[in-house]
C-alpha cells in the first residue's frame, strides 16, 4: 500500500491523518444533469475523443500517480487539469479532498484509459470529513484557474458540486466493480470548462464551503518535457 499524510480539518480542530491506499479510480462522465454530461462529451468529441459506451465510466489509475507536490512534468503541450472533489475511504470513514485529474488531451483521442494513466494526479494536502458537509453538500463550489505563457491567470472552471453525482451514488456505482472500498481514492469527475480546453503552465483549483467558511486549495506548475 501507498501512504499519504493529510491535514484533516474538522469543526473541532485539525489533525494529521495517515491515509493508506491501494486503489485509485478516475470517474468519467459523472454529471447529474445528462445535458451537462453530453456537453462534456461534445467537448471531447471536438478533439477527436469517441463517446463512452456507458456513463459513468471508471478508469483505474496506478497508485503512484497520486501526488501532493506542486509540480508535475508532462509529455507534449496538450495536457490540462480538471478540478474535482476526491473521495477517500479508510476504516469505513469517508473523507473529501480536492484534486486535479490532469489528462493528456492528445492521447485522449486515442485512448481515454491511457490518457488518464500518463499524467500525475495532483491532490491537495487538506481533507474534510464527509459527515460534516453532507447536509449542505450541493452548495459546495469547484473552481479552477490556469496561467498561460503570458503569465495571466484566467478562470477556467466554475461550478457547483451539485453538477456531479452525489458521493453515495458514486460509491454505489463503484461498488458494482469493486465491492471492497476501503483504502481507495476516487477522483469524482469534473464540471465543464468555461471556454474550451486550455493548456496552461500553472493550474490552481479550490473547493469552497461557504456554510463552514473554509476552502481547500491546490496549485501546481506544469512543465512540458523537451
Short summary:
With 226 residues, the protein is mainly beta.
Task: Draw up the topology in text.
Elements: E1 2-10, E2 13-21, E3 23-28, H1 34-45, E4 57-61, E5 66-67, E6 71-75, E7 79-80, E8 83-90, E9 93-100, E10 103-104, H2 105-108, H3 112-117, E11 121-122, E12 126-129, E13 141-147, E14 153-160, H4 167-177, E15 184-187, E16 202-209, E17 214-225
Parallel strand pairs: 1-12, 3-15, 5-11, 6-17
Antiparallel strand pairs: 1-2, 3-4, 7-10, 8-9, 8-15, 9-12, 13-14, 13-16, 16-17
Task: List descriptors.
single chain, 226 residues, mainly beta, Fumarylacetoacetate hydrolase, domain 2, eight-stranded mixed sheet, five-stranded mixed sheet, 4 helices, Fumarylacetoacetase_C_sf
Instruction: Please trace the helix and strand order, writing H or E for each element.
Output: EEEHEEEEEEEHHEEEEHEEE
DSSP summary, beta strand count:
17
Count of runs of 4 or more consecutive helical residues: 4
Instruction: Give, in spatial order, the strands making up the sheet with the most strands.
Output: 2-1-12-9-8-15-3-4
State the fourth-level CATH superfamily: Fumarylacetoacetase-like, C-terminal domain
> Ends: how far apart?
33 Å
CATH architecture: Alpha-Beta Complex
Low confidence ranges: none
CATH topology: Fumarylacetoacetate hydrolase, domain 2
Output the radius of gyration. Answer: 16 Å
**Number of self-contained structural domains:** 1
Strand content: 35-45%
The computed structural class is: mainly beta
Mean pLDDT value? 94
CATH class wording: Alpha Beta
Shape: globular
Protein name: DUF2848 domain-containing protein
Organism: Maledivibacter halophilus
GO molecular function: catalytic activity
Pfam families: DUF2848
Amino acid at each position: 500500500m501507498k501512504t499519504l499524510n493529510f491535514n484533516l480539518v474538522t469543526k473541532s480542530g485539525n489533525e494529521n491523518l495517515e491515509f493508506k491506499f491501494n486503489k485509485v479510480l478516475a470517474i468519467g462522465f459523472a454529471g447529474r444533469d445528462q445535458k451537462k454530461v453530453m456537453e462534456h462529451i461534445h467537448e471531447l468529441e471536438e478533439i477527436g475523443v469517441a463517446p463512452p459506451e456507458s456513463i459513468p465510466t471508471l478508469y483505474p489509475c496506478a497508485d503512484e500517480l497520486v501526488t501532493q507536490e506542486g509540480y508535475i512534468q508532462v509529455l507534449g503541450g496538450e495536457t490540462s487539469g480538471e478540478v474535482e472533489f476526491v473521495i477517500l475511504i479508510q476504516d469505513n470513514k469517508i473523507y473529501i479532498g480536492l484534486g486535479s485529474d490532469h489528462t493528456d488531451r492528445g492521447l485522449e483521442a486515442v485512448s481515454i484509459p491511457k490518457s488518464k494513466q500518463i499524467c500525475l494526479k495532483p491532490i491537495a494536502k487538506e481533507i474534510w470529513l464527509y459527515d460534516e458537509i453532507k447536509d449542505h453538500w450541493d452548495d459546495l463550489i469547484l473552481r479552477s484557474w490556469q496561467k498561460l505563457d503570458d503569465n495571466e491567470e484566467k478562470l477556467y472552471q466554475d461550478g457547483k458540486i451539485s453538477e456531479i453525482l452525489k458521493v453515495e451514488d458514486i460509491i454505489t456505482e463503484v461498488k458494482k466493480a469493486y465491492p471492497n472500498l476501503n483504502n481507495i481514492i476516487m477522483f469524482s469527475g469534473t464540471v465543464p470548462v468555461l471556454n474550451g480546453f486550455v493548456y496552461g503552465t500553472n493550474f490552481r483549483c479550490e473547493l469552497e464551503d461557504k456554510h463552514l467558511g473554509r476552502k481547500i486549495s491546490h496549485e501546481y506548475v506544469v512543465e512540458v518535457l523537451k
